[in-house]
Amino acid sequence: MSSPPAAAAPRWPLILLRTTATTLAVLALLQVMLAGSFLNGTYESLKDHEGNAMTLATVVLCQLVVAALVRRPGRGPLWPLWTTAVLTVAVVGQIAAGYARSISVHVTLGVLLVSGVLFGLVGAWRLPLPARADHLPEPDGSGRLPRPGGPLEVSK
Fold first, then answer.
1. Phi-psi region of 128 (alpha: psi -120 to 50; beta: other; left: phi over 0)
2. With 0-12 CB in 10 A as exposed, 13-18 as middle and 19+ as buried, what is 141?
């Protein structure tokens, strides 16, 4: 006697992870551009740099929730959760270093932070989406899933 096939893992947590990871990457690259603009002499960019940092912090907290949803109920891997937790701590440290005007720590942590965000972006898009529930193969009673491509039926 075989057990019934498990329900498909939900797709929406991975789609949300891809969305938040892409948003984080865009915000991180904007942050780099705003910092460069400030260092180039456009001092008004510092206020935008600060505002973008707060937006980035909000999105990384949203991604932390999404990464937990990828793990459960999405039955996905654990790495998005711990990498987003590390990113969250890094963003808080980055903001603290910026307000403390500790430029050497702020720039170094910023480079590492952008690298981590881009690592998370690539990883989120490399995770395969589960099959849709309406596209699951019908069980044939053998307890095994059909092979990809399946056997060809030849009509006579």
1. beta
2. exposed
One-letter amino acid at 134 equals D
Instruction: Determine contact, residues 136/100, Cβ cutoff 8 Å.
Output: no
CB burial of 3-15 (b: ≥16 within 10 Å; e: otherwise) equals eeeeeebbeebbe
pLDDT band with cut points at 50, 70 and 90 for residue 73: confident
CB distance 14 to 131 below 8 Å: no
Distance CA 63, CA 49 (A): 21
pLDDT tens digits along 99-127: 999 999 999 999 999 999 999 999 999 99
Residues 6+ apart with CB under 8 A from 122: none
Q: How far out from the chain centre does Cα 49 lie?
A: 22
Using CA atoms, how far residue 51 sits from 34, 46, 100, 119, in Å, is 10, 9, 16, 24
**Cα 62 to chain center, whole Å?**
10
